[in-house]
Amino acid sequence: MLSYTRGIENHTKYRRLSCEKTSNITTVVSTMRLILIKFLFICCLSLSLQGCGSLGESIRDLFPGGSSSSDEDEYVDWTADKFRTEAKKAVDAGSYDKAIKLYQSLESRYPFGEDSAQTELDIAYAYFKNNDPDSAIAAADRFIKINPRSPGVDYAYYLKGLVNYNRGIGFVDRFLPTDTSQRDTASARDALKNFEELIRRFPYSKYLPDARLRMIALRNNLAMHEVHVARYYMKRKAYVAAIDRASTVIDKYERTPAVPYALQILQEAYTKLNLLDLAADITRVYDLNYPNGPPVLEQANSTISHKIWDFIGLEK
pTM of the full predicted structure? Predict the structure, then answer.
């Protein structure tokens, strides 16, 4: 009987200890769950605050003309003339980012000012000088759309041509003797169209003399590009394609220095195709018009650096 009683007591004691352990484990689990919830809450809060910061930056990017609070404090007492004067100084100093910022602040603060149209043109020019051609053309197009009868609208068309004329000129072209006629001609064609539109719409514009000179250079460049492509086809014995490219020079870019070289390609290609009558006709035309060879030699103005560049053959 005594042993039975002790067994009952031990069993009861064991169950009590087990309950205490279970209770402790439950407490620990609840504490860990609470800590985990707090940690997740803090992480979510941090991400949401970071997202708000990113949203603010996105809004500022969408509305670049807007000014920050520090800018507002800086420009709070500025007049339109003050904005324009400081922006002009920034342009003259080559600080085009600052000039764009000032012009945008001027435009947002005085949108209906007497010189608001001129401000739009100034922004387009600042973009152009800041090597941002897409923004420059977009600003010029916006000016043309909003101010079609403005006295400065011819300059907007001229500026578009100027932007495309210089678009393909990068760091390499500025400091190395590269041949631009062997590069992509999309920008040159766009510039030519811009200047042609300027001449058609404004035949008495003061920008026409410069535009015409640039058009001559563009046509020469495009014609020589066709010659380079035709030579490429000749090397690969694609004579029909070479004839097509050389004929484009004769038909579309007459009176350019590339014409005699296009005739030479035609004469050689017709000979390779055994079209001897056509080759003889081209030879007579060439001899009649260029008895002493091409009037403008292809390498007439080449320097030692040009010859080294051509020898390397990076553009061939």
Answer: 0.68
